[in-house]
Amino acid sequence: MDSSFLEPIKEYFKNLNLPFSTNISNVEMTVSSINITTDLCAMGDPIVMNMSVRLDTDFSDDLRNSSSEQYKKYKADLEKAFNDSYKCLPGFVSATVTGFRPGSVFVNYEVKAGAASFDQIASANKMVPQFLPAVYQLNPATFTTEITNQTNFTMSPVDIFEGDTVKLICEINSTSDNVTWYHFDQIISASFRYSVERKITRTISRTISILKIINITKEDYGSYSCTFTKSDLSHRLIYKATKPVKVFPLHITPNLNDTDVTCNSPEMQTNSPLLSCCIDRHLPSLTGDWKVNGAINITGVSSLSANCTEYKLNINESLCPPAKSGTVTTYTCELETGHGARHSQDIRVTYLRTAHVTISSSTNSSVSEGYAFNLTCESDVSNYDSISWKIQSGNSTRRVDCDTCIKNSRFPAMSVLTVKTATQDWSGTFICTFSQKHLESSANVTIEVISLPLKQNILINPIAASILCKVQQALECCINASTMEDYKVTFVVPGNAVQVGKKKTGNLFCYMYNYTETECNTQKEITAYCKFINRIGQEVNSERIRLNLIPDKEVSCSDSIGIGREEDTLVKRCQELNNPDYFTRGNKTYKCSNKSWKVERNDCLSVPISNLLTNAESLVNSPDAKATLPNYLAELKEKTEKEQNTINSSPANLGAIITILGMISSIPADAEKLTIQNFLSTVDFIVADSTAKAWEDLNKDKIIKSSLLLHSVENFSLRLQPVNNTIPLVFANTLQLQGIVVTENSMDYKKNFSSTENLTVNVLIGEAEIRTLTQNSTVVSVMYSKLGQILPQNESDYVNGLLITTTVSSNRSEKFNINMTFAKKNLSLKMPQCVFWNFTLNVHGGGWDTRGCRPTEVDEHVICSCNHLTSFSILMSPDKSSQVIFEDYITYIGLAISILSLVVCIIIESLVWKYVTNNTTSYMRHVCILNIAISLLIADIWFIVTASINDQNQQISRGICFVATFFIHLFYLCVFFWMLSLGLILFYRLVFILHNTSKTTQKAVAFCLGYGCPFVIAAITIAVTLPRNNYTRKDVCWLNWKDSKALLAFVIPALIIVAMNLFITAIVIIKILRPTIGDRSNRQERNSLFQIGKSVAILTPLLGLTWGFGLATVIKNSHRAFHILFALLNALQGLFILVFGTLWDKKIQEALLKRNSMSKWSSQQTKSTSLILVTPMLAMSYPFSRTFNNLCGKTGKYRVSSSEPSSSSSENTSKSYSLLN
């Protein structure tokens, strides 16, 4: 029981002075103090003091066992001593031993008594040794007392929240100099968050300790203890109290987290939203505040209740303009406990505005089938989430699911629906809806589609035919009889337009007109067509009917089919086999042969495939094409399988299926396994071995249908849309499809494919490339084991592996690296090429291309590393290495000789230049020879560069290949044009003997001709062909022949120059052989013929015989001899220039001898000014042509009669001679 209330009384009596007198010795006595004790034995419940003392004896394990004799003896003796010692304490009840613990022997006991002071307990402790036998060796200085229920422990505040500043207060009715605070078992030291304050009131013996915790956190929860300690030499008294502290988060619960408010809603303006924030308990000191943050500053009125703060919004439409619809304003409520804890909560309010939507049409309320129209839907709210289009027709409403026909923009907020070909499916009420969160704003317009046959659905008969003058020819236009519209139909023929009626023929309504041609003067082609006009005045024209007017006497074939001359063709529409009155799509071509019509080409479609084609045309123009596609693909697969035999024998039916696949591949498809299976199975049916003959015929067309099929599969895989974020694995006999959806966790793309023939191909795209793709994009690969063999190939190269297509749906970088490992099909084939199908080659017909791919051959596999995506395979050819090596040896050895010869030629010309250019004609001759050598040298060097590229891998340096081809083309042309310049100079000096032109003029003309013309030709060639990717060949760095005929830009100028130089050569020979006065002897004639032969033998190689053989190598299946001769002569051209252009020149020989001091320079003056020795363009001299010169001494001289002075004649003669020597 707490006796603190007695302390004032005790203190009063202690300070009381009681003076009184006594008769003893007349001494006055004063009572200075009175000791007052209080007897609490009868006052309330006793307290329990936990005490301990040490016995300085050895500890025995028996003291752990309460049933042992030693334990019982110790317990009895000690309890007797304790009871005798502590009975003097106020309110004493008992003293009980509770146990022993080692460390000598510590005795734990508890004393139940009233509240006792420190001194009272210390006095009682001193009495214990007197009642305890000495054998126990009790140490009187080791008494410890712990009192746990005499401390007043309080907290402020009672409810503690994170962030509060908390005070823990411990108070005892005693003085204590030492106070310690504990959190769990850890001593709390003073810091910036913890502070301890102690207050001692000695007058009333009270000690208060306050622990202050600033900004309390969850980590501060738990048990807190305060310990007051008072001690002397023999006794230590401890007051201890413990209290648990709970720290709660200041959890605010809003009535709304995120909410939408429609600003211009009347209901929202009259009943505006109430925002509130509450905590889970009542706090008298709770305060609240609201803050508004956002582009739309709509405020409100706040209020505070027991545990909530509320905010009533004042909605004002003027503060919420359409441009800001969808803007989020954040309302922040902040609550504070009054003790430092505070917390805030955001409530996000999205302010929306009902949009004003308008819709307009490019046409009136009616439009005809086959016509285009567009609808424009606009909104004043630009921050929309989505736009949807629906068509309501009767009781049904369909969603317009057409990615290609809807274009949306945000600024301005607009959606344009474009219908390129209207059909009945587009008839109805169009509803355009702008959605922003839950708010939808719509507008609608009604469009009626009026029936009008589509151009491709109007059957004409005949399509092409011959007619006679003044003989009627029946012309027919038919449409499907299911139409309900009554059209106005007019036949338009030359000079006339005639309205005709209809009649039903089988499944068609047919309109017929009998045409008669009256102008019979000339043969001519006449065109006619029919025009269909519906009730709103819109029209469509049929295809043209072509009529060829022929004379009656030339008619060879005449029957029910028609009339015509021999070899004439007639094209008519197709009839069903079992029902002639019913027609199907396609046409049949007849040819007049031996006075009867024979079917030349049958392009008629079977009825099922014709219906499939018509349905496909409707499907791609349908507003719900995506939803309808799966059912159509199931029907397509089923009917294609049933019509397999028809397809095998009919290129037209095969082509129709390819056309269908091409059309529907533009429709995005959900990646359902069955949908993909149906598409791939259809492809598998039409590439079966049984269709080989039909494919052979189809690939002869200008547009390669196998290329279209491959493109269709690529488009289909590119537009696949994942289902459940996956692309399924699908097999279809000769085809296989695999793919992935790119996610943030996607690593590399690695797929393995194998065919039924055990051929494999592995596809690998590295993680670095995958990381560049956008989230949720797809990577899809399709393997084909048959289609690669159907695509056109070169005669010498074969597809020797599987064909693989890989597509990526997202935008990607221009270069996208992919590696594929192909297993070889035929191990005997060599020279692997990694190729892709380039759809832009051959005027968009497509062809194999090697650009951007690098092959690596590893045993039975070829690894292709490419920097782009499309359809890949490997091309290989039979081993031709021996003949290639032989021709390579010829080329490289010859080029080495040629380059060395040209370098020597240039050096010699530079050494003897001043000796041999002493007149204009000689100067120009050597200018031409020097430039021929330089041009040929540069061309040969670039030739070596291209050869090295081809030997390594031309795709590595495609840019270098273009540059090399340009310079080879340029400088080979320069060689020819400089040869032309040389020939023209010779021609000029021989024909215009008396005409003189300055050296500067001649040089300017020669340089313009030698370099200007070749540059213009080469530049035009690359400018025209490079943008279309057909400037160079695929396998070598030289002008393309197959695709663009760019090689003609070299061949034509070269052949023209060769022809001109041969003409000049003929003039030279005529001049050489022109006789002097008198007839020649037979020997002279023989010598002249020999001279002609040598002239041709020398001039022709220099003037382009080499490239004559080069042209022969371009011809398909040309003999190998042409290749060897071309390689040999082309490589040795430099040697020809050195020998016939330089070393065979007498003046050069003499100049070289003079420079080397091997002989004296000798020159002979011309004895007669009229004597000119004319020799071929590259003159022959000693020692090679002594015999030739002897012959010319008899037959090669002629005199020039001149009336001018001899000096002039001598100068001209000298100039002419210098050109020839």
Task: Describe this structure as you would to a colleague.
- It is a single chain.
- The radius of gyration is 57 Å and the shape is elongated.
- The strands form 15 sheets. The chain has an eight-stranded mixed sheet with strand order 4-5-3-6-14-13-9-10.
- The chain contains 25 helices and 63 strands.
- Mean pLDDT is 80; it is low at 1-5, 20-34, 36-43, 952-956, 1076-1097 and 1157-1221.
- The protein is 32% helix and 31% strand.
- With 1221 residues, the protein is α+β, with helices and mostly antiparallel strands.
- Residues 887-1145 form the G-protein coupled receptors family 2 profile domain.
- This is Adhesion G protein-coupled receptor F5.
- Keywords: Cell membrane, Disulfide bond, Glycoprotein, Membrane, Receptor, Signal, Transmembrane, Transmembrane helix.
Give average pLDDT, whole number: 80
Name the assembly state: single chain
Based on helices, strands and strand pairing, what is the structural class? alpha+beta
Low-confidence stretches: 1-5, 20-34, 36-43, 952-956, 1076-1097, 1157-1221
Sheet-strand content, in percent, reads 25-35%
| Strand line-up in the sheet with most strands | 4-5-3-6-14-13-9-10
Outline, from the CA principal axes? Answer: elongated
Distance between the termini: 148 Å
Sheet having the most strands? 8 strands, mixed
What's the gyration radius in Å? 57 Å
Helix content percent band = 25-40%
Counting DSSP H or I runs of 4 or more residues, the number of helices is: 25
Total strand count, please? 63
